[in-house]
């Protein structure tokens, strides 16, 4: 029987399975991707986020954030992101590129209402995220649905590296109809 990493389709299925595990399991490494954007000045920037959903049918993954955080300014200027995951147990690196649309306001209210109180604390702070403050704790958390944003990331490319006894690297793209292309690692 062949291993999942021996075929491009096997790897693609494993990538989406891994993203799904990240959504479902708070301890899974895919739970906390690095989310990279381009700043309005054209500089690279990256931060940890929580992966909230991943749907292979629509090719959309979602992330929640504060509407007043700097990443929103970046995404308004350049609506693209890269997500990076390293799953050591599977020897699997996943890199995604995505087009990002920002959901907020009435469209996100139903989702906001389902978020537990303690998690709502992550959205809404005075002064806004990234503002200079005099002391480390001179801010107030005030959960506010008006500051809650959902980043809808439509995946356009996937690059997967499997570091087994042999190293395998394969890329997939929307433009290439998700047919795997092996790459030299
Ligand atoms: C474990 C962990 C999980 C985080 N999850 C999120 C998240 O889901 N969404 C988010 O906006 N920021 C999250 N953050 C905070 C970001 O890493 C970042 O500090 C913050 O969003 C401000 O980023 P920005 O200034 O680039 O917008 C998380 C941080 C850590 C350490």
From TrEMBL:
Protein keywords: Flavoprotein, FMN, Oxidoreductase
Sequence ranges assigned to domain Pyridoxamine 5'-phosphate oxidase Alr4036 family FMN-binding in this UniProt record: 22-101
Origin: domain of life: Bacteria
UniProt GO molecular function: FMN binding; pyridoxamine phosphate oxidase activity
Cofactor(s) this protein requires: FMN
One annotated GO biological process: pyridoxine biosynthetic process
Gene3D superfamilies attached to this UniProt entry: Electron Transport, Fmn-binding Protein, Chain A
InterPro entries given in the database record: Pyridox_Oxase (IPR000659), Pyridox_Oxase_Alr4036_FMN-bd (IPR024624), Split_barrel_FMN-bd (IPR012349)
Pfam families: Pyridox_oxase_2
Name under which the protein is recorded: Pyridoxamine 5'-phosphate oxidase-like protein
């Amino acid at each position: 029987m062949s291993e999942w990493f021996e075929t491009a389709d096997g790897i693609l299925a494993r990538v989406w399975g891994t993203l799904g595990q990240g959504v479902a399991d708070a301890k899974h490494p895919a739970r906390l991707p690095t989310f990279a954007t381009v700043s309005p000045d054209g500089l690279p920037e990256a931060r940890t986020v929580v992966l909230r959903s991943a749907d292979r049918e629509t090719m959309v993954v979602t992330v929640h954030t504060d509407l007043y955080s700097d990443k929103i300014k970046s995404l308004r200027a350049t609506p693209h992101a890269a997500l990076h995951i390293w799953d050591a147990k599977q020897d699997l690196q996943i890199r995604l590129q995505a087009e990002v649309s920002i959901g907020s306001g009435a469209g996100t209210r139903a989702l906001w209402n389902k978020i537990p109180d303690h998690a709502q604390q992550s959205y809404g702070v005075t002064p806004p995220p990234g503002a200079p403050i005099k002391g480390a704790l001179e801010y107030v958390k005030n959960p506010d649905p008006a500051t809650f944003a959902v980043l809808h990331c439509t995946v356009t490319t996937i690059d997967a590296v499997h570091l087994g006894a042999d190293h395998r690297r394969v890329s997939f793209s929307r433009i290439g109809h998700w047919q795997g292309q092996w790459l030299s690692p």
